[in-house]
Amino acid sequence: MLNWLNKQWSVRVLAFSFIVLAVGAVESFHRNQVSFLKNESAAEAKKHLSVIRSRLEAAIVSDIYVLNSLSTLITVNPDAGPKEWEKIAANIIREGTHVKIIGLAKDDVINFVYPFRGNEKAIGVAYRDVPDQWESVRIAHEIEQIFISGPVDLVQGGKGLIARNPIFTDPPFNKDYWGVCSAIIDFQSLFKDVGVENFELKYRLGIRGLNSTGKEGAIFYGDSSVFEDAFATEQVNFPYGSWYIAASLDGDALADLPWYRVYFVRLVGYVLLFVLSLAFMTIYQLYTMARSRSLHDELTKLPNRRYFIYSLKQQFDSARKHGTETFAVMNLDLDKFKAINDTYGHAAGDKVLVACAERLKSVLRSSDIVARIGGDEFLILLPRVKDDVDARAISQKLQRVICGTPVIYEQDLIYLKVSIGWVTYDSCYEDVDALIRAADERMYEEKRQALQAPNFVK
């Protein structure tokens, strides 16, 4: 029995360990799944950021490309006047999607603006007298190519990029400097057309490189935290200079994914774990029930012969090993039980057996073991009995509790009588079978005496 209890605990520990390991495995796979989805989301964002970069480059280059037509006219015909300039400027405004204002400055003094209305005050302004603008004009002159400055705050509102295109009348030597052609590109319109607004619905965008100063330049869009948490970066290249753009997650990267994609591993894992646990518990319960039935009598719920012999062997081996332990084995048999079945029926006989089992348990100690080994016969193991005197006292007590009160069956009273034989452990007994045979012999001797008594069934 002790081994059986140990096995039960082993099974429980094993089951608990399996559940812990299974939960750990599910959570580990879940973390891997979440990491995969985040990487997938980041990869998608990197692709979108690359698209934003290419669109920015294409849009700005497209705008400044049309600006070259005006510069080319002046290079070819430096004596051309505002009428010719205005025609080309109007065409540039039409074709340049984001170009809003065009200005010409001969010797770096503004002498033409299109559209003129609203920009009249710009005529005659010398860039050398406006430090914020002179720097970008000077750089364009020095590098001899288009230079993108800004973005800057526009007087008419919003922000704009300023494309400075230096004009030389002696290309490709570029020694004879005519002046500069400037174009204001609408910053908000540009960002909207290249998809920045849609990109920022899911991600945070940051841009640095004010005045085309690249990665080391000042931040002019977004904030520094975007660059600190960036999972994707790109460089927007201009004819001269660049911007450095970065993207970071806006909150939870998985917020836009369906919940079942995020928790797919947990859904499958825990459902499978539940099914396996349920199957295991069902099998284990069936096994426990089957084992219990194999060790217990179905009618009286007492241990059966198999259980009793196993326990008796343990007690016998312990006594033989230590040499100081004593115990007793009793064999109890109901007298004339067949007559009860014949007279009142088998249902009455079953009730008598159940009542007898309950009365035995009510008298015996918790350390004692009583088993029904078949029919009307019971075996009792008394671990703490010293000698025949103790065994006789217990036998008499059992006689009184079983025979003292009749069993009530329907309208009838069934009086019981039992025969009890016992034997106490002695080293002369070679095995448990010898003990049981000795108890049987004493029980049958008492039964023979009982059978000679008057009929007790009333």
UniProtKB/TrEMBL annotation:
One of its GO terms (molecular function) is diguanylate cyclase activity. The keyword Transferase applies. It holds the Pfam family GGDEF. SMART domains: CHASE (SM01079), GGDEF (SM00267). Residues 325-458 form the GGDEF domain. The keyword Hydrolase does not apply. CDD domains: GGDEF. It is an enzyme of class 2 (transferase). The chain crosses the membrane at residues 267-287. It comes from the Bacteria. NCBIfam families: GGDEF. This is Diguanylate cyclase. It comes from Vibrio gallaecicus.
